[in-house]
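User: Here's a chain of 403 residues. Predict its fold as tokens.
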Amino acid sequence: MIPVAEARARILAGVTPVSAETIPLTAAAGRVLAAPLRARVTQPPADVSAMDGYALRAAEANAGMALRVIGAAPAGRPFAGGLGPGEALRIFTGAPIPEGADGILLQEDARLDAEGRVTAADQVTPGRWIRPRGLDFAEGDVLLEAGRKLGAREIGLAAAANHPFLPVRRAPRVAILATGDEILLPGEAPRPGAIYSSNSFALAAMVAAAGGAPEILPVAPDDAGAIGALIAGAASADVLLTTGGASVGEHDLVRAALEAEGYRLDFWRIAMRPGKPLFHGRRAGGPAVLGLPGNPVSALVCGVLFLLPLLAALLGREGWALPLSRFRLGRDLPANDKREDHLRARLLRAPDGVMEALPFERQDSSMLRLLAEADALVIRAPHAPPLPRGADVEAIPLAALGL
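Assistant: Prediction complete.
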């Protein structure tokens, strides 16, 4: 068995990002930027008012002069001229500052007389309430680096920088193959000895959340020919995920079928719990393959630890790493054995305000319900000593992964 970190490094070795495509800004949410995004304009394009009020010379306002209001400048309709001595301009938020003005008198601090002259009821500080040209960004500035996942903030910034289209990585294609005579699809009539497939649907959701394009293949029976045919049909995918058939039983046919299709398997079995029987391989000119255990909890934990980093690498997200946080342990834990453990846990705020990780008492890897109820995976190193309640532990918060 190899360590988790080594397995992840070997999976990621030599991975190159998928190709790029250009898409409309309106379709870019959740995609990953393929090239640095530079500003095509300067924002704001001129010195503008940050408040509603009057543009004027601060020294004149502070001297108590009654200034003649010569016009108004709503946002989007700049005033055509400048200010002369003893003049002020009614101005609104976002409107350009006229030549000759160096301050803004807030409208709530302004006194307007019947003759249309304004005086200041408070001091006007030169430059205050004026947003200088380029305060946000200047034309040519790099606003977003390649590899950035595009959310609402990034989309808004790209729009403000005048980008109607964005270069993004295409979504990595992930083919998902579940195997086993015992597998039923949700909605099919139950039969003795059968279980309903959950892995394909859960993994597809994980792939989609990470920016990939999942394709659920038909469930393969325990038949070498049927498995091989489905593997051959997935040759155009970027990643082939298999679930089940990865152990040592006489019906575990997946590895043999992969080798028959030209895949070279790199490793099999990892020193981890849950998920020991995971394998990885590649085929020249074909997809990478991750063989996940058939156990639903094991498959999903392996998806977190290995599939998500692989998808990040395919999307060019340099520096991406699984989120790790420290929490106070909510109950005693016994010593660990030779495998790295990943304990399903709830995150709860203790009465003193500190966040605690409370691992479930039972960690049986067949209990998918506990994974659905978990907020985090508490990580325990191989041969870790017993830990008392109140100790510090490291965990992967699942919400941070969108799971």
